[in-house]
TrEMBL record, chain A:
Subcellular location: Cell membrane
Name listed for the protein in its UniProt record: Zinc ABC transporter permease
Coiled coil (UniProt feature): none
Transmembrane segments: 21-39, 45-64, 71-89, 101-120, 147-165, 185-218, 230-251, 263-285
Record GO biological process: cellular response to iron ion; response to zinc ion; transmembrane transport
Top-level division of the source organism's lineage: Bacteria
InterPro entries in the cross-refs: ABC_BtuC-like (IPR037294), ABC_TroCD (IPR001626)
Xref: Gene3D superfamilies: ABC transporter involved in vitamin B12 uptake, BtuC (1.10.3470.10)
One term under GO cellular component: ATP-binding cassette (ABC) transporter complex
Automatic annotation (TrEMBL), chain B:
CDD domains: ABC_Metallic_Cations (cd03235)
Chain segments annotated as coiled-coil in the UniProt record: none
Protein name as it appears in the record: Zinc ABC transporter ATP-binding protein
UniProtKB keywords: ATP-binding, Nucleotide-binding, Transport
Biological classification of the source: Bacteria, Pseudomonadati, Bacteroidota, Flavobacteriia, Flavobacteriales
InterPro entries according to UniProt: AAA+_ATPase, ABC_transporter-like_ATP-bd, ABC_transporter-like_CS, Metal_Ion_Import_ABC, P-loop_NTPase
Molecular function via GO: ATP binding; ATP hydrolysis activity
Cited Gene3D superfamilies: P-loop containing nucleotide triphosphate hydrolases
Keyword hit for Transport: yes
Family from the record: Belongs to the ABC transporter superfamily.
Domain ABC transporter: from-to ranges: 7-239
Amino acid sequence: MSVQEYFSLVLTDYTLRTITLGTAILGIVCGMLGSFAVLRKQSLLGDAISHAALPGIVIAFLITGAKTSNTLLIGALISGLIGTFWISGIIKKTHLKSDTALGLILSLFFGFGMLLLTFVQKMPDAQQAGLDKYLFGQAATLVESDVWLMAVVMGVSLVVLIIFWKEFKVLHFDPDYSKSLGLNTYVLDVLMTTLIVMAIVIGLQTVGVVLMSAMLLAPAAAARQWTNNLGIMVFLASLFGALSGIFGTAISATSNNLPTGPVIVLIAAAIVVISFLFSPGRGILFREIRHWKNRNDLQLHKTLYFMFEIAKTHNDISHPHKIKILNNFQGYTRNSLKNLEDRAYITVDGPMWSLTQKGYDKAMNLYNQQDNTHD
Amino acid sequence: MKDKIAIKVDDLTVAYNFKPVLWDVDLSIPEGVLMAIVGPNGAGKSTLIKAMLDIVKPIAGTIEIFGKPYKKQYKEVAYVPQKGSVDWDFPTTALDVVLMGTYGSLGWIKRPGKTEKKEALEALEKVGMLEFRSRQISQLSGGQQQRVFLARALVQKASIYIMDEPFQGVDATTEKAIINILKELRKSGKTVVVVHHDLQTVPEYFDWVTFLNVKKIATGSVKDIFNDDNLTKTYGINYKVSLLQ
């Protein structure tokens, strides 16, 4: 099956449609909430929460014996939340820095989860088979009820973001100031963290514990490159998340043996790389071009300024001077003379050059700007 | 004229990790003064104003804004944090930051509308930043960022303005612009409290001063208490006002 065939099948085939819809919605939720995690510099929190969810999944199985995803995800939610509260507790009550606290909880919970998982897998009956799919996810196991759950989380997140949009905006930009405005920053923080934990939990079945944080961060990091507006950033992050989900599913469905979760994450990573290279405002490519252009301009301006110093000794600023005298000046080349002429800063007539009014004004302004900085 | 108390601090003690940052501070700030809080590094100046703003929770003591706790009076107070305390790479514009000043008086869900935008533009004009209103905030210079923060506080139309080192790392033009606005605020009866570092400018800029070094050393009018004795008590070495000039 080719990718094109896949897309014609998506509309008719029930299973494909369910999975695609699920990964797309997951991408939207993660992009939306991930934007705030990235802006709050809480990128690592997502990683810690998703790893902290693993023991919850296994314990939920041990207690109920159920393998329905909803039961297991409740376990994941509870242990994810416990992990989150422990992290903030450690940061508040000890001298440990937040990265240490995150790393500590991540490895503690994940280690405990792996221990339980190994234990469960050695149990005699075959009931437990498939629990390990939560490590790297398995989108093929998504069923309609899972997608409904994702849609509900998406709806709730959207409503909360719309209601508290300006509060979240000022809280993520300037937390102290938002407190001084009388906002209840504690409630807002808990609300946002709970949403993020929920987004992570609904993604565990598809993308898995290990890679889940990438779903949260990659679309948001990519979106930041394209815009300086928070609303547009959140929208773009959702779009990138959805695209990663859809194309990741398409690629993994059309080639055998490619796992969906990792492919989705790779697509998201590709979007990040493209954004970091080619976005017009912040991308590396355009920045280098601007850099190079600025350096060229600087050279030209230095030459122009040198000419201005010569020209201003005459009453007539356009009094012609020999090109030869420029040879003493370091930055001068034939090319820069040509460039200055192109910009109408000077006119060249045989072996002589003269400054134009435009060139004079430009050089004058350069001088003023320099003067201002010393003020 | 100076009989009404704007901010009253009683027995305030604040500690981070068992080390006291502020010790038993009593302070009454009369309404309508332009006051500097001065003291060496680590004297607890920022902590004192954060406690006034209910951002830092004290171990003991109370703070009253016009006789009531902060929670009931937050609309009366506008805060200008240190500009280094936020990440200026946040995806937003100068105008948008100033609009944040209106968020406290707007209710849930409500967005800033025409009135708020007009007020924000007026505040930007007042600090001389109108032409930069659509500029991404990371593209502003340090002085311009500080002016945006001041404009954000101005749209709050508060009675009390509390500022954390507004002159740090700004150019001379910005410093002049800011101090002119602060003096204007005082003229219109507002109370302005400023954490300040440059002792030399205290007599020129302020009419009221508090010396702080974990404990309160002295508070009063600059004319009466800005002297060698208090400087020495606060900074620990033999300070002289005459040496500042």
